[in-house]
User: Fold this.
Amino acid sequence: MSHNTFGHLFRVTTWGESHGPAIGCVIDGCPPGLTLTPEMIQRDLDRRRPGTSRFVTQRREPDQVKILSGVFEDDRTDGPRTTGTPISLMIENVDQRSKDYSEIRDRYRPGHADQTYDAKYGLRDYRGGGRSSARETAMRVAAGAVARQVLGPHILIRAATIQIGNHKASLRRDWDETACNPFFAADAEIVPVWESFLDEARKAGSSAGAIIEVEAINVPAGWGAPVYGKLDAELAAALMSINAVKGVEIGAGFEAARLSGEENADQMRKGAEAPQFLSNNNGGVAGGISTGQALLARLVVKPTSSILTPVKSVTRDGEEVEVRTKGRHDPCVGIRAVPVAEAMMACVLADAKLRHQGQMG
Amino acid sequence: MSHNTFGHLFRVTTWGESHGPAIGCVIDGCPPGLTLTPEMIQRDLDRRRPGTSRFVTQRREPDQVKILSGVFEDDRTDGPRTTGTPISLMIENVDQRSKDYSEIRDRYRPGHADQTYDAKYGLRDYRGGGRSSARETAMRVAAGAVARQVLGPHILIRAATIQIGNHKASLRRDWDETACNPFFAADAEIVPVWESFLDEARKAGSSAGAIIEVEAINVPAGWGAPVYGKLDAELAAALMSINAVKGVEIGAGFEAARLSGEENADQMRKGAEAPQFLSNNNGGVAGGISTGQALLARLVVKPTSSILTPVKSVTRDGEEVEVRTKGRHDPCVGIRAVPVAEAMMACVLADAKLRHQGQMG
Amino acid sequence: MSHNTFGHLFRVTTWGESHGPAIGCVIDGCPPGLTLTPEMIQRDLDRRRPGTSRFVTQRREPDQVKILSGVFEDDRTDGPRTTGTPISLMIENVDQRSKDYSEIRDRYRPGHADQTYDAKYGLRDYRGGGRSSARETAMRVAAGAVARQVLGPHILIRAATIQIGNHKASLRRDWDETACNPFFAADAEIVPVWESFLDEARKAGSSAGAIIEVEAINVPAGWGAPVYGKLDAELAAALMSINAVKGVEIGAGFEAARLSGEENADQMRKGAEAPQFLSNNNGGVAGGISTGQALLARLVVKPTSSILTPVKSVTRDGEEVEVRTKGRHDPCVGIRAVPVAEAMMACVLADAKLRHQGQMG
Amino acid sequence: MSHNTFGHLFRVTTWGESHGPAIGCVIDGCPPGLTLTPEMIQRDLDRRRPGTSRFVTQRREPDQVKILSGVFEDDRTDGPRTTGTPISLMIENVDQRSKDYSEIRDRYRPGHADQTYDAKYGLRDYRGGGRSSARETAMRVAAGAVARQVLGPHILIRAATIQIGNHKASLRRDWDETACNPFFAADAEIVPVWESFLDEARKAGSSAGAIIEVEAINVPAGWGAPVYGKLDAELAAALMSINAVKGVEIGAGFEAARLSGEENADQMRKGAEAPQFLSNNNGGVAGGISTGQALLARLVVKPTSSILTPVKSVTRDGEEVEVRTKGRHDPCVGIRAVPVAEAMMACVLADAKLRHQGQMG
Assistant:
């Protein structure tokens, strides 16, 4: 994780501003010989795309991805294959409405990175948030689609929204359901609750936070590298780096504070080929290394900072102002963070796989 | 963060096993000319040392640190100074009781890294947990003491235990109080509650989890580097990499899910030299860059896995066994994690400072 | 230096194949506020461009660079400025003649990376050399133009061809002359010698090697970081990574073997502000740190491997064949490596500057 | 390569000053299960040790290495084995004569790093060169011994001195001979020539430079990673980072400038399992990837800077002085650089092996 690059062997570098000509990423270190088509990437991008329901932003970004390098097809290979060289992906920005930015040029929108970018860099691309826009997460999703190819079909990564505002979904996870509602809910019963809650928030010019659960099934035991490159430490960084995320927990997470040692211990019995665990409070990782159980994390996404309700702020020059953000914003940015969380987990695991192979052969 | 090294410009590499001849670290990239004595490091180490109360392990580890390189004193400098070359620190292990390890050699202690180290490496140093022992965190504390010198006296880093088991401290933070009780509590009233709770847990052969809060005051606005080297992402990785930590949150953290956009927004008014914030739900970081407010994080430490109460497990060969861990263990490892959390925050900030200087001059 | 990225704080990642849709690079860590226009980059690219004389390839690649991110202009800034976020540069490939590649698809061209890419990756993009094509060096030149902005106008980087085949230029360096002949010669008298030598080589279906000298003037003393990040070690890696380079030397280089200790010592006398050196056998670096003298390196570029003269080889399947490479190839690739060498030195120095600032403030 | 660490997956960090209490290194990322004893490391260290002939320094440094971590032996393993955790090695400094350093404290010895360390850091440990002392290379040799275990017995790395002063050895390489003379010469006939040449230099208070050849046999085709992590680029950095090295070449190296394309091409014929090359001008690497031929490099070591012959210099404060270096110095530091060059090649290859495994599985 260094500036705009993450990963050690499976390395992703992203670039681009919300209202520049394009956004993109370069994926380096990908193994050769993997099938990779734009459609494979597009499928994941479409899950994150704006405008798919009234609960997400209404911007029109078709987000058509192009593969500019790193893939080759000839008559010896059955379809386009990765070559082991850098994969360059690009999405052209097509819905950059030319408009008057003079209002936000000098105002610091609370919750956004306006003040901090100015404090750091002394100047910033204020159009639509520039580099700090959540638009950047499209390239994480694109990279995640490549990472899934590295992991292969056996490792399944999936995420669901489990809480919006104060409304928690039940503990059951009906994963097929996540494709059937606009919230990526794994619990059909919570859907109408969230609908009316978010409709209300939207009408009130407000917004809502959310909690997302993400898991990876069939991760082999042994991935990850103590003591600073721990699998959970890398996952925490990857998830925390997503826009608006304010917390990450693994397994029992913050609940572990309340548990006794014997409640928290993931006891073991004899399994077919490996130990069988009687619980998963560790969330699939112990000592920074995967146990073979489901790798399980949760992350919290703060409520969208762009709201119609006026909030107090200052300008660049210190003048006191009120800020109301009009426009086409997500009432709950947490929703579209679901495929992003999956992508980050895929990237962390792809990197962990390659690093494990590196040390262990 | 890569295997046993973390940091980019202020880089810390640790080494050593619980029952090997010594543990140590190498700190590379430290600016020259800083005063550094063994006493400065020892002061922090003594706060983490075992045997200081009945609520921590009774092992006798004097943890005397030696500086083996990177510091020089001549008559031109007023005391020993860092030279800008690698600082090597070492602590000899003196309380390695020679004992019979045959029992734990083959048994997987639930909650420990026994099963995962075997799954990854095929062999492991089982004496006292080897590399996965919390003993490694002593070197984090040592490195943190050096990091504090890099940050200078104006930046204040401090942490407190705020919850043990189900017992939360109040919201007031009486920081002086943290030095006056065995829990690093910032609230004198919770101390007797935790005492009786932990005495009971200990007698029952059980253990307890804890939540720690850590903050840094006077961090200038502008540190951190989007979008993957975000200050909060690096902090999350650093804290999550501490043994037994299962969750990290920044500012309002998981509570942010329940807040509305206008409640969560850190509104601003005109300040003396910089914007004055009316709240700190962001925990001092926005868009991955410090805002100038207190940098604020919380972490959860799971209950000690080494307990007297028997738990079900298996051996290396798959045989079913019960595991009871005798010996001198912390009933709540969270307590001694308090100085470790401070150290990790210090290291993250020292690195962020140098990287900020690098890009901005 | 890691796969397709180099640099630590000023980091360059390049991507793209010779005959793919485009080539590009991402420059991360660049300081904000620097003026950067496509014209500034184009100026350097034009020096490397094919088709400028009969001594370089006759391919028509206009190599028009586009800046896709990281630069912003508003009415507060005087022209487009870097923002401190990743700078994405792209050149579309326009002269990809659609042709029959079946002949080179299976044949290993001696001196090229055909056999090694196949050995490593199991497949390769054989069109024009794919990723191993010297076309990739265009992006090094583009990145170098950005690096020069980081270094500022005071640091002057310049290179010249000093030997082609067995014909050495004299020791005088008339730097203005390098812009006046097709060889980047700093010695007008050698120009006709090289012209007739290369005309002959070209007619014979052969090719020639070359030696290039590159130097940086006004580098402050103190840049570079012992002991593995030495300035000369990083420069050696950067120059050796250029296609077809087989050797790098600093200062007196291989001649130092013949010198006595007293001949080789760069003796010092009192200077105006810093020591004045009486020679520069060290090439401006001692102990891995710049001395303040000219940073001086030489590199050798092997003769172009693509020649008309048939050479013995094998196919992918081990069948013995003869290979003759028709087409529009440089009779001496060393010539166009001159601006590439300058660019790599600029990138190494920009990174060294930022790293020095990082540690020293 | 970053400050005092090199390697990506097989990572070596060294620390320590010439006259501090000890020097050491930490090797991270080593595969588990490899046999490793102090004797294995000592064997290589003894080849570099001072005092073995009159042609090297007469200091008495037994250089006894200790393994402090990362190796474990129990009754399940046949001897001590690496565990996959950091290997910490240390050598205590025993021949630090307590003496008066006031003379060199303020004087800049030409050719040494005195002036540059002061320019960079503002202070330096002047005792025996401190961190810039060639003593640091002992830890490179120690790390190289571990790297050889990673590579296994099939890959053979060997080096020889091939030129001292103006006296070149013949082209034959009698590798067994290198163990039979004090110069690591692979040509018995040059030995008396070098003896009398160096005796004379020593008597004259002078010193001599040298050229070393180093090669690795049986490196599989396919190691290395274009385009910046090229095997030859990494090797160039590793060798150039050795104290006093001023040039590195691969294969035909600087001679390639004189060759025609057809002379330089390593033509191929059908081999048993892989192409058989008819020459090795490429030095075993093409496009940054190993070809399967011998990996072949040469490096030049400048004459020892510490000489009795007085040379002109200045003090820290700019006063003009003459410097004569008394004491026990190598008349030709190139000789003891032979095992260091082998070690650096071993480390580069161990890292390349692990990285190749990482990407390719």
